[in-house]
Amino acid sequence: MKLPTQTLLSQILHLTQHKHLKQGQTLHAHIIKTGQLSSTYIANTLINLYAKCQHLPQSNLIFQEIQEKDIVSYNTLINAHSQLGCVQNSIFVINLFKLLLSQVGLVPDGHTFPGVCNAACNLLDLFVGQQVHSVAMKIGYCYDVFVGSSLVNMYCKLGVVCDARVVFDRMIERNSVTWASMISGYAMERFVFGALGVFKMMMWEDVGGVNEFVFTSVLSALTSSDDVFIGKQLHCLVVKLGYSLVSSVGNALVTMYVKCGILKDAIMSFELVRDKNSITWTAIITGLVQSGDSEQALSLFSKMQFFKVEFNESTLVAVLNVCSDSGGLELGKQVHGFLVKSGYESKIHLMTTLVGMYAKCCCVGDARKVFDYLQEPDIVLWTSMIGGYIEAEENEYAIDLYCKMQIESVMPNELTMARVLKACSNLVCLDQGKQIHAHTIKFGFGLEVPIGSALLMMYAKCGSLNDGNLVFRRMPNKDVVSWNSMISGLSQNGHGHEALNLFQEMLVENTTPDSVTFVHILNACSHKGLVDGGWFYFKMMSDEYGITPRVEHFSCMVDILTRAGKLYEAKELIETITFDHGVHLWRILLSACRNYRDYELGVYAGEKLMELGSGESSTYVLLSGIYEVLGRREDVERVRKMMKLRGVSKLPGCSWIELKNHIHVFVVGDQLHSKIDHIRVELQALTKQMKDEGYGAHLDVTLMGFEG
Which residues contact 164 (CB under 8 A, 6 or more apart)? Predict the structure, then answer.
């Protein structure tokens, strides 16, 4: 029995709104049976029904069977494929648009272009977008508010904000989507003044069009501490216009305050959001992580679980970062378990963060297991794993993993190369470092940061200052890290005066030094015995550059004074420090007291270290040796007992050499080396040769009789 066309259309629309696929298929069968599918109107509504239920193959089939397709037929299918967003669907949209243009008697209308523009965005194809724009201009649809808004949005998303602004300025009529798209485009390009300028224009021309989408767009443009005042003004306007209770606007306010570094206001805004969702919670947790407040971030994560708020990937990344920063390995493992349980194992971004978490928690073995689990890790994950090995001071494994990466033909990025160069620096492997340098040239990387700075550091640590200087002079843009690396290399390799001259050159080039710069400068003074120079630069740091001296700066000054024999001046300097500086400074003084045989002051420094609970075996060795020299056997036994009671043991010596592109590591007492028998034979031969030529061991009186 045939139903009236209007009745059929009403039924199909009802089923479309409620996405009742099964009932729709039943009705579709009835339409075919009664021969009513020949109606273009009915066919178009069926296309829309299947599209809304995401059954695009069926929509395509119905479209192909329509004998007299109209513009609605094309528009329905174009928008259906465009909304799903994947590359395949977007290519289909572009091809369908081309087919439409070839049809006689059919012309795109205002409902055609939004879907085609969206497809161009999904394909990141500016050329296609410009062609679509040309068609719109040719047939006179550029001034249509929907087409114009779509073009503005397309150009903004493709990063061509200037073209978006041209379209925007030529539009006769604009709606809230147009304004929000233009503001959002400026925000994505970090052009704050452009975004604010459009917003002010909107407030002047179309204040009634301001809505939550406009506010979220303009708030997203504010990302630095300089934008706080404007952000607070916008916050007031949000409250005044009654949008403060809208979740998306509340989320944007929290995110804005977090990015601007005003955590107190971010927390207050967070508390005022009524319907907190995963975006709200993630924004504030991320802010707390970035500010270093791991404890409160974990507390909020627990509350999030208590309120049964559904997590998203960004939330889990933020929590894993908390675990990384706070060393919360157990919580990190629980989050890992949750990832596995929830099916997130294939998410590369999460797995990369997980690898970093395990590496920072000194569980590089677990990090490698996560890495090996993924069948096709991307370059970010490779780089993260290499960085994990370097964090764990397992630089040999970092280089081995890079070699494996080359075997698998994975193209490195700049950060990968910088990290591998750091591994070479840590191992002082010049030949390996030169090979990596050659790779950077082969892969087309220049000497910009970070590769230039990493090369500088590698050559400096390996003592190849000529090569380091060549890299430094050829760097197109030198930042403070580059200057620091070169100054450090000169200082560490005995060229203290050259390091100080380079510092003066740095100031002439108007590069502002940082706290690290002054550490290297003070080291240069220490190696050259420049006491007055050390005091001069120590005072310059705070007087001229407002840098508050930290432990490492005081450490350098104590080293300068003790090398010059000014032991009591060094002691006075240490005792003037008002903040907790740990044990390092007293350790320097103790070592100097042994060298200058000032045993009384050495006892004072050693006992200070004992009070502070030093965990370094050398402290107990030196103090025990000094008491031995002074004939205070009771104190010798007390120090040794304290060492055993605290579980302090002497770390075995370790050294390594690079031979035929392979790094060989040697540890005192190691019996597992593959060449141990050959090593023993060679050592015995060398020992005999030394004795035969009259060489004997040099014994330090302060270390005699000590058995660790």
Answer: 151, 152, 153, 154, 155, 156, 181, 182, 185
Tokens matching residue 70: 């109209």
Separation between Cα atoms, residue 530 and residue 3, nearest integer Å: 102
Contact 182, 198 (CB under 8 A): yes
Amino acid 697: pLDDT: 61
Residue with tokens 């975004």: 195
| Separation between Cα atoms, residue 617 and residue 651, nearest integer Å | 8
Gap between the Cα atoms of 331 and 294, Å rounded: 12
Question: Pseudo-torsion of CA 211, 215, 217, 220, nearest 10°?
Answer: -160
Distance CA 214, CA 219 (A): 9
Q: Are 336 and 368 in contact (CB under 8 A)?
A: no
- Please name the residue that has the structure tokens 């559904």: 310
Task: Give 179-226 pLDDT, tens digit per residue.
Answer: 999 999 999 998 999 999 999 999 998 777 889 999 999 999 998 888
Question: Cα 549 from chain centroid?
Answer: 28
Higher pLDDT, 288 or 695: 288
Q: How many CB atoms lie within 10 A of CB 162?
A: 10
Please, what is the angle between helix 145-157 and helix 161-170, to 10°? 170
Q: What would the pLDDT profile of 91-131 be if each residue is shown by its tens digit?
A: 999 999 999 999 988 999 999 999 999 999 999 999 999 99
CA 300 to chain centre: 22
Cα 235–154–123 angle (5° rounding)? Answer: 125
**Rounded (5°) CA angle 476-481-484:** 110
Residues whose CB falls within 8 Å of the CB of residue 340, separated by 6 or more in sequence, listed in order: none
pTM for the structure as a whole: 0.63
Would you place residue 168 in the very low, low, confident or very high pLDDT band (cuts 50, 70, 90)?
very high
pLDDT at 184: 95
User: Do residues 551 and 582 lie in contact, with contact meaning Cβ atoms separated by under 8 Å?
Assistant: yes
Kindly give, in sequence order, each residue whose CB lies less than 8 Å from that of residue 692, ignoring residues fewer than 6 positions away: none
